[in-house]
Here is the input.
Amino acid sequence: MSTSPALPADTGTHEPQNTGAQRIIDLEARYLLQNYTRAPIVIHKGKGCYVYDTAGARYLDLVSGIGVMALGHAHPRILRVIKEQSALLIHCSNLYYNEHQGPLAERLAKISGLERSFFCNSGTEAMEGALKMVRAHGRRLSPEKYEILSLDNSFHGRTLGALSATGQPKYRTDFEPLLPGVRFIPPNDLATLEAAVSEKTAGILIEGIQGEGGIYRLSAEYLRKARELADRHNTLLVLDEIQCGVGRTGSYFSFQTAEAGIQPDVLTAAKPLACGLPLGVIVTNEKAASAIGPGMHGSTFGGGALACRVALEFLDILEELLPSIVEVGGYFRDRLETLARKHSFIKEVRGYGLMIGVELDIPGKNMVQQAMAQGMLINCTHDVVLRFLPPYIITKKEIDKAVKILERIFKSAKSASPPDGRGSEAEPPA
Ligand SMILES: Cc1ncc(COP(=O)(O)O)c(C=O)c1O
Here is the structure.
């Protein structure tokens, strides 16, 4: 599927902000919590795989709202259902039925092989619900069964529960002490996993592909072992598919492409599910679902009519898009691997569908800034991993454009190298 031929013109310069934008930036500096470090552009609109800033400059968007805008910007079918549904009903609370939660839950059951859904508004809220489910499951069996196993380098969200299960001290330290009973173990280490799971373990939390952690996939063997141990000890296996799921890797969920042949008890998803409207979900089997009874959990906004209707439309479109996610993602990865062979500071290219990381042995922040100056949005995680989460509608032509920009950036990084040509350790200017 290609982007619209009628893209608005690129009328800006990709230069640091014009004065209209400066007012917005100044207001934020004065009135917002200073928790984000934003790039100095104010995005005004989007179309297909591109966004435009307030000065009219166009950017190829390979961030897509951090893996949210799966169909790019202003997709005509999404716009149509938003218009139709918002004129009918946006939300009515969970005191009543709306027409779209049930059909969406049915669709999620079909594509995941699981049975029941709970809808909420974000990834972290889905993780909170999953953690409560794990604790309630354990408590039904024994007051001692409350331990949660999670992995080093994982990311599960910013709320206290999800943060307690996030295996990266940089996010946790300021808020300690966190939830008791969470243990961290290294990913892909079968022996440690086997030793860590016991009758006290209520849940095992795994991100099938660690996204924020730098695009690292858990092995099929590891997933199988986690499944086996969860069965042996009556523990819930929870897969966090918030970044790697809902089509991102070219299958509905990443565990379905992992060749592990397993099913989780619980999966969490969010980001692309409603193409930019907030919607998170916990999808479970009957066993996990039975841990949550009437009144034990809820959400005011979760599963609103508009968000669910958009998600249903998105899943219709996604079914047709899955093969091209694999093909275009593979093409992008091949082109990046060609670049990696030319530049010794590229340590590794890791890619699964349209979830791709390029690990450098130099910091990537400067490259993100250079890309923006050349009309492309990319992201860097863990300081040294350039992360690409483009819209699923991206074409090979747009990938070629991205690679051309990256080629220029990588060349200039190389030309900053010392004469022996191994510039890897050179710290680029901030
Ligand atoms: C794997 C994973 N889990 C959970 C979250 C939290 O999701 P949200 O930011 O929607 O709360 C994220 C966000 O990046 C994520 O990547």
Summary: The CA atoms of residues 33 and 414 lie 38 Å apart.
